[in-house]
Structures
1.
Amino acid sequence: MKTGNPASDDQDQAVTPNRWRALWEVLIVAAKLGLTSFGGPTAHLGYFHNAYIRKRKWMDEQSYADLVALCQFLPGPASSQVGIGIGVMRAGLLGGLMAWIGFTLPSVLILVAFAFILKGYDVGHAGWISGLKIVAVVIVAHAILGMAQKLAPDKVRITIAVLVATAALLWTVPYSQVILILFSGFIGWWMYRNVPVTPVIKMNVPIRRSLAVLCLITFAGLLILLPILRQAINMEWIALFDSMYRAGSMVFGGGHVVLPLLEQELVPHGVVSKDDFLAGYGATQAVPGPLFTFAAYLGAVSMGGAGAFIATIAIFLPAFLLIIGALPFWNVLRGNSHMQGALAGINAGVVGLLLAALYQPLWTTAVLSPADFAVVCILFVLLNFWKCPPWIIVLLGIVGGMIVNQI
């Protein structure tokens, strides 16, 4: 005989389809972003803001800004961590996994194809790549404009943003970005420490704290144990996993920073040749999605399909462990008056970092002529004022780059 509350049974039957529907929705939206998000981590934040916040309103503006600040503070691929965090809060841990798969898989497949088919082919000066660089300038400029209006609305925070941008451009030592974020947080705490607490919308974080602590312990444990295991067991796949995991754990500032670190890890040890590395670097700049998927190309060059899988999992694993470990404690921290002041400064600092990235490396590598500048202006007007969808901007950027390249 069936026992239990019929209403509860009906509710359970109603919840399951909704959960699968949410997971499917997260996967589809993330996959669209993975196919159209060109321009690196700074541009991705603009794409995410448009798709997740403006269009679908999966999160309020302040929570998104706080999540971006948290991910900027953590090591690893900041844009991927933001996507994972949004997926987790939308549909649980599986939602975070779906968000990562959707955003990451397209560029992984493309770069593995480059490894097997276009190995050594020089695409660095192709017109369509120039067009994608121009698109990245437009997307980042659009993101900065929108975020600055909300995150740097007064003279104190706009000053923080400009100071951080200036320092980021002139001071390019390792870990400078995380130091600037800490500096921004300190200034924000000092300037706003006596401001009354602003009520925040509680972020839906369906993660137990015990699981979060376990993830943080696992992150630190692997960072310590993998090099030991690599020395004890001389196996190629363990060495590859260790190199990629360490790269994913030590990088602050996103995908652009991981490229020289990977070169130091792999090229001197003969895992990949310098020519193969540079060819993959050119391909990585041309594909959408996170720049960390460059690891898939390197893994495919060194160990084939299995290497691509191992390298991809290893370099993104720290991002998962850190964001899942940090999110359950984020609501408590961001509701504290001192933390709110620090977050105000950190959010302004993030705007400054985006402003610096708009100039270097985006503007300096994309806008090389008056014709390039004209294309930037046209696409910005179409995106910001005519509200054209990003995929149209991408296509127009490709066409514009090819035309400019023929002039």
2.
Amino acid sequence: MQVIDSILAQAASIAAVRRDIHAHPELCFEEQRTADLVAQKLTEWGIPVHRGLGTTGVVGIIKGGDSPRAIGLRADMDALPMQEFNTFEHASRHPGKMHACGHDGHVAMLLAAAQHLAQHRHFDGTVYVIFQPAEEGGGGAREMIADGLFEQFPMDVVYGMHNWPGMPVGTMAVSPGPVMASSNEFKITVRGKGGHAALPHTGIDPVLVACQMVQAFQTIITRNKKPVEAGVISVTMIHAGEATNVIPDSVELQGTVRTFTLELLDLIETRMEDIARNLCAAFNAECDFEFVRNYPPTINHPAEAELARQVMVQVVGAERALAQEPTMGAEDFSYMLQAKPGAYLFIANGDGTHREMGHGGGPCMLHNPSYDFNDELIPLGGSYWVQLVEAWFRQPTSVR
């Protein structure tokens, strides 16, 4: 692996920052302390800072010449609303809040890169280091863009990176096209007519309708979409009734829909509403249908993904530069890729063998109460960011 010596030399101090962030997790749009710490470090390294985009976002500006060309690198800062099981020294000090997705590590890797880029500036142009709030459900990327991110900091391309547990440390992955799915939620209320469970003929049973509806939704996946297209409908909540001998007046169903294309999402939403309303009508029931589109699919641009892969080969070797299998998880970096060319890539967090005494039981997986980012990734991820920047600027200006 090609790890930059200066980044390796500062890895311990950056890891200390990472653990401090892990110990003080902040939820979406509340990342004030984290933003203060990021801005403090950037300022110490002579990097001009802009704050406030997306409420708590931080943008560092690293100029290395007179060229108008510019690249953006993004890290997310927010934590999750969940209780941490770990008891090591840097475990969360805030009950019900935890860095269970490694965003503390994303910040650390980008800080490591920013420090080196500010000290050496072996590029002709501008690097914008973007520390984004509210990835976990708040759409912080969308809010930074709405506040003028790309107008105030005109960049040609933008890249993001996520740690990925389960793969061996020292491997990285990227692929062109869809790499993460759209995330969407639905809420359906089936309205019938309540009554005595012994006299079902006197009412309209919404439970029966809801059960039919859950099964019917799966026919959209098996019979309406093309078999080669990826889509998931998951009914994850069904709320009904208060007593065993009472047919309730209504049933509420909630869940998620995930796709890699907006065209398939359009189809699924339309068919779900058709099925819900017509099925209710067939049973003389009524229906309230709500469908909320959250994050769009994360779709890598081919040229930018290819450059990212080439740099991976340089940094970790061809055998460890993998193709990323698309996942049905969602990521709001998708908004940035809708606005600018770029790519979202992955760095392996290992199999959990980095865990220390005091680490909770169970697997070391994302969104797990025993999760912890692997500090071994800081010099590797920081070095990768630097080499990606330098490789991008070495390209002719006619190449994106």
3.
Amino acid sequence: MTSAITAATANADLAALIRTIPDFPKPGIQFRDITTLLLDAKGFQASIERLAAAAPDGIDLIAGIEARGFIFSSALAAHMGKGLVLIRKDGKLPGATIGVDYTLEYGTDRVVMHEDACVPGQRVLLVDDLIATGGTALAAVRLLRQAGAEVIGAHFVIDLPDLGGADRLRAEGVAVTTLVAFEGD
């Protein structure tokens, strides 16, 4: 399920549950709203089961990216019986953290995790709701690798392939799985 064509065909039922809100958060953007998928218990359950079915063997931990990624990563971790690593924006976690800065269109941001969230050699699956340009996901991969983890894949419910994020992750050696894809931004 790594290609947009395969994902769109295999998961048309899930794509139909995702609402598009035009011009949010600014004119020209087609916001892909997963709240309608989450409201449908069978659709939400199916998305977790399909993400789990596509997961590689040997996962030690699931890592979720703030904020909507926490929904899918938590459910997937519970479904698979794995621990959960929280990757958050700076200043949101108590205790000692490690972090990675990354570039945005107009500035920079930082993602962090607890310095003891994973140990070197652990095999981690990264999960988020959507992959667009890939900046945050790529920063999360670098953060996990900085801690010595092996990122064995990244799973997303939605891919916006025209924005190139999944390809950026693949270029960094990360296998990407998505359930649905929407053309455009």
4.
Amino acid sequence: MNEVTIFGLLAAALVGLGLYGVLTHAAPLRRILSFNLLGGGVFLVFGVVARRGAGAGFDGDPVPQAIIITGIVVAFAATTLAIALLLRIAELRQDGTDD
């Protein structure tokens, strides 16, 4: 097995674990973390697909790499926002207000 196959199998495992976590867990924090795991698997799949084209004798395409880096930054920002909203909801529930 070469490295592209190993990374492809790892990406499929990450996507599967993330999807399982999103569908089965009821806790919001676990869903957020599972969604991040799913996103990491998708980024890895995209990187593997871009690498396979480079393995055929072509130079590596910088566009998929730029899209992956941008996606990681956006995923980090979305995770930060989701956790901040989750903390705010928890704070409102402790105050007893339902506004």
